[in-house]
């Protein structure tokens, strides 16, 4: 809250119009017209008093001048606040007014310390805080170090700014901030003064203000008590015009037409293109290029956008007055005013009707609620009329061409500047000819759906964000620039995991298009459901949320907005395995024209062995009327039930088989080449070797995975890496090395639960069962979140070494306290199955676990083993099949299904081979339970 107040204080002290001023603050007593605020008795303050003790604003209008006075006092409640206030910073625009300092005081108990009387003076700094955004304002910052500011003090700052703006033709405007509850303020006031009878309009944009007016000695006075009442809560998706503006504005402009006439004077173009000048040559070139006025307008717009770079200049009376076309051309840069003036001059010289038009980049449809004043706008564009059709042309844009000429910028309202005046004009919202951002993503998943896929992406964007991205990436270091590019890339690839090993970002100076290219690996998230593999490719409908809350009576007449303007096209091409044979799509291959106020389009289908999806998503164009909310909610819900998915054929090979096929066809080579490039970028980053090792373990390349884990551990040893390498070494029958990794993990993190359980298991299998059980018992006695896991490990070891009854008893004790724990029930069922005891009760445990578990595959596998023990092979096979339907790569179920089939005289050798490929020591594991093929 205090941070917001400090920003507000700075903003108030920098308000004003155009005025001749010095480059240093003035020092003077408080003006006689000011009504003093009530005194602050610092001896009676406590921690219960608000931090903002005084928030006093007073503004006086006389003829064409406004003086904005402020008196603010803050209680220094904390050392952090003392540090924040220890350097006072007051920004102001010397071209727009004089900053006058009246007082800087510290109230300490009954003492008033006058900093100015002690000789303190502000130092002036020039600080262009938005230079990276192409913004030279000429702002100065007056700074003063407040010495010996203590907790418990009150800091009081009193200052004013006078402003007189010749660009307004003798008119005045001003804005005052309105802090609102729940911000606590001791004394708050806004006081406005102007001569009685002056044509001053004022408007507050918050409701419920306590306002009094009076006339005295030829002056009108309006008093507003602060803070303002807390604004009514509004839904986040309400259109901008419903949002409260915490400000009060005043203006002497009678209406929009009066403002239009006044500002039109600055955009008169007669004689601004001298014969024989470089601009005249460009006009002649455009005239010769085509007789068509639309083509000429497009060429003129392209010239201004491409030839003149953007740079705002607020100095030299430049806040509202544009520089001349000749100066803009010679400098090669200009702001929106300069670009509009140049474009206007060219269009009018070509015989095209055109006017400058004021718009707002930030206010959207709130502009119509503002008072007529230049402060209601922050941008200017061109309104042209060709063949009766209105065109809105923004010279500060980039990359506009003939196809884009009918596009309407998302400003909602405009004020054309005409000598005969104009009312405010509503700008129609319609879909642009081209998306602002277009991405083309090509994913090569021909190696198989179970593996990462190389991808290449090209993203092209134009418009306001291009310059910002270009400037930031140019100013940042390579790592920061890469991170920014990667953020843009990842935003296009859904929530799939990905890594990038090549990226470029470049702006085409001629077209103004930013092109980002990237290459990397992506892990499409195929999910096994309903007996087939499916891939969600619908990031459009899935991204449409429509959950408007209009339950409150006060909200029921508020429409629903689709949010800030955006327009994106995404083309995704996924090259499928087997040239796409047997693959299908399910869900929405086309889309309705809009959902949830978002405008949509889609083309999707299979083409030459690839899935191709082309989507366009445009927000900020529509609103949903309150009466249509229920219908729209149903439409969105219905569309979300048919999200577009790719579906693999039913005979898609399981992972182990896909690995064999990929190896035979050398399909892993592009994937491994991608990992090599990724690692080569930062060969000393351990996590990169982890990623490749994880892939190698997924394709059962144990030696390759071991090499990567060796390198990662050399670079950065962690418990997790040692445990993973321990498992790889175990698979490779390096028991000594595996045990060493477990001990290393415990050295690094003595309380690591996974390492403790693994060590207990190894000790038991090395003939030291009691040592292993003791290790687990110590952890069980300590309790904690992993206690049940330690009990399950204890029971498993007891069962493995012919002490199954003890293991069951241990599990009985914890299950009694958590009878609905599916994992514990499965552990007890598994123990009974492996120990071959209490099999009837084991079936009950497994069945209950299946009913409770979110993923019942483990419990199905356990129950299948129970049925196998009982000789009920058909039921065993049914459970193993069901487990594999849930988890096609479950090694245990594959192995036991193979054994069960062989016991029935059928051929289960393929399942056994698959299980051994995925888990080379599985025969040893089951031999401990007395089960052998």
Automatic annotation (TrEMBL):
Origin: domain of life: Bacteria
Matching PROSITE patterns: TPR (PS50005), TPR_REGION (PS50293)
Domain DUF3857: 66-216
Signal peptide: 1-21
TPR repeats mapped onto the chain: 857-890
UniProtKB keywords: Repeat, Signal, TPR repeat
InterPro entries: DUF3857 (IPR024618), Papain-like_cys_pep_sf (IPR038765), TPR-like_helical_dom_sf (IPR011990), TPR_2 (IPR013105), TPR_rpt (IPR019734), Ycf3 (IPR050498)
Keyword Signal: yes
Protein name per the record: DUF3857 domain-containing protein
